[in-house]
Amino acid sequence: SFAGGMASTSKVPLQSRNLPWVEKYRPQTLDDLISHKDILSTLQRFISEDKLPHLLFYGPPGTGKTSTILACARQLYKDKEFNSMVLELNASDDRGIDVVRGPILSFASTRTIFKKGFKLVILDEADAMTQDAQNALRRVIEKFTENTRFCLICNYLSKIIPALQSRCTRFRFGPLSPDQMVPRLEHVIQQENVEVTPDGMKAIVTLSSGDMRRSLNILQSTSMAYGKVTEDTVYTCTGQPLRSDIANILDWCLNKDFNTAYNQILQLKTLKGLALHDILTEVHLLVHRVDFPPAIRITLLTKLADIEHRLASGTNEKIQLSSMVAAFQAVRDLVVSEAS
Ligand SMILES: Nc1ncnc2c1ncn2[C@@H]1O[C@H](COP(=O)(O)OP(=O)(O)O)[C@@H](O)[C@H]1O
Ligand SMILES: [Mg+2]
Which parts form a coiled-coil structure per UniProt (predicted)? Predict the structure, then answer.
């Protein structure tokens, strides 16, 4: 059901329980959005002058692309016209040429009951469309520009064919800054009556790197699993190694013999269900922060990069873990005095 998804996101009563917070706190109007004010005011102007062009929203996940076009649609159409005027295709719908020739074409070519105004087609995750489908879409857009507007949404602009790009007004949705995220999180924290420590808040902001959806999901899952949201519970809930875990790992690598270091890390990794890749990312950051002599730092960074490369190609985690321990042991005599 293509229009069905639209109806369910737009008509959920705000007070409903058990909703994921990302939906419960999805901005309803353009004014509710907390970022990209320049984009919002431009869109507002297009709407008020009745000159909405075809749109292309791009940028990383969780930055408000879908919320923005839904808010525009809510402003453009009354509730009762919504389903006949808006077609929303999201990730769960097929992305082949058949969708363009089928549902999209028939929606765009059907005359509107409400004579005035245009219909709106929202194509979420348009970068998943095949080249053929994109070419077919370009022809549909050209043919029905009179009475239909298209909004394409994607993460990667480069995956949209130039012929489509050039027919749309493009807007880049950048990651949200901590300044923008924190007040919004605080609003939700207050509404939901969650206890969050300052370092818990910091951990959420750090781990979500500008993705508001991710920050809300971390907040909700941590508070549901642990009650109080602290640095510890956030990292544990997301399966990310704690700073103290990483400090321990580095300490074992540099100060214990190989077998002890290897076994203790393996034990910690198993106990906490950590991925070696995540450990490696954090260890790498710590290597940058610790005051190693330059030559040693370079050797270590090169070795860590090699391990990461091998891990990415699906090699055995235990072998790569021993390689990581070995990398530190190889330089340990030179660094012990510097690192402690
Ligand atoms: N700019 C924003 N202002 C307020 N909330 C936001 C913003 N961007 C994202 N969110 C929150 O994150 C959720 C996901 O946003 P969404 O618009 O679906 O992001 P995208 O389509 O860019 O992946 C929303 O339901 C909302 O709760
Ligand atoms: Mg989206």
Answer: none
Determine the pLDDT at residue 337: 54
Domain interval for residue 295: 243-339
Q: Is the CB of 138 under 6 A from ligand 1?
A: no
Query: What's the gap in Å between 114 CA and the centre of ligand 1?
Result: 30
Q: Which amino acid is at 243?
A: R
Are both 157 and 19 inside the same structural domain? yes
Task: Tell me if 178 CB under 6 Å of ligand 1.
Answer: no
User: Which pTM was predicted?
Assistant: 0.79
**Residues 17 and 164 reside in one and the same domain:** yes
Same domain, 203 and 273: no
Distance 83 CA to ligand 1 centre (A): 22
Over residues 125-165, the pLDDT tens digits come to 898 888 999 999 999 999 998 889 999 999 999 999 999 99
Name the one residue in this structure whose structure tokens are 């203790």: 264
What is the CATH number for 268? Answer: 1.20.272.10
The model's pLDDT over 25-83, given as tens digits with 9 standing for 90+, comes to 999 999 999 989 999 999 999 999 989 999 999 999 999 999 999 999 999 998 888 98
Q: Are residues 294 and 202 in the same domain?
A: no
Whether residues 116 and 155 fall in one domain: yes
Could you count the other beta carbons within 10 Å of the beta carbon of residue 212?
25
Closest-approaching ligand to the CA atom of 39: 1
210 lines ligand 1 (CB under 6 A): no
Reported as a pLDDT band with limits 50, 70 and 90, residue 5 is very low
Lowest mean pLDDT among 156-160, 241-245, 305-309: 241-245
The enclosing domain of 233 has a CATH number of 1.10.8.60
Buried b (16+ CB within 10 A) or exposed e, 284-300: beebeebebeeebbebb
Residue 273 confidence (pLDDT) above 90:
no
Q: Do 227 and 264 share a domain, yes or no? A: no
Cβ(151) to ligand 1 under 6 A?
Answer: no
Say if residue 65 is in the same domain as residue 123: yes
Residue indicated by tokens 């959005």: 33
Half-sphere exposure of 198 (CA within 13 A, CB side): 0
Place of tokens 């730092």: 297
How many structural domains comprise the chain?
3
Side-chain-side CA neighbours of 172 within 13 Å: the count stands at 5
